[in-house]
Prior knowledge:
- The structure is a single chain.
- 41% of the residues lie in helices and 26% in strands.
- With 117 residues, the chain is of the alpha/beta class.
- The protein has a five-stranded mixed sheet, with helices on both faces.
- Helix 1 packs parallel to helix 2 (58-71).
- The N and C termini lie far apart (30 Å).
Amino acid sequence: MFEPVFITHGGKRILRADYSGVDRRDLLEAFGATGRVVTAEPPRSVRVLSILRADLNADAVAALKRLSASNAPHVLAVAVVGTSFWNMAVVNIQAQGRTDIRLFEGEQEALDWLASR
Length: 117
């Protein structure tokens, strides 16, 4: 079962949401679970590491865009590690004005960047 968890890296609290292996039928609920955790936090306080290696479909991309929009007030920074198709979805979100999202090839680099924020 998917569960986003807070970890500490470089002295900073980071929400790690690893969607790897989440069945595409369960992605919408997984995004919802992440959203509930993020929106329970104070504005501009959450650093999020999203690992997006799950199977992709149009509903999942739409849900990711909704998650991004609803979480924006609470997010300080988002680092995304994912497959090339997920990266294309994230680039689309960036194009809509989200400057707090950055793409990475590996988790360590993403965590280091989040800890620097």
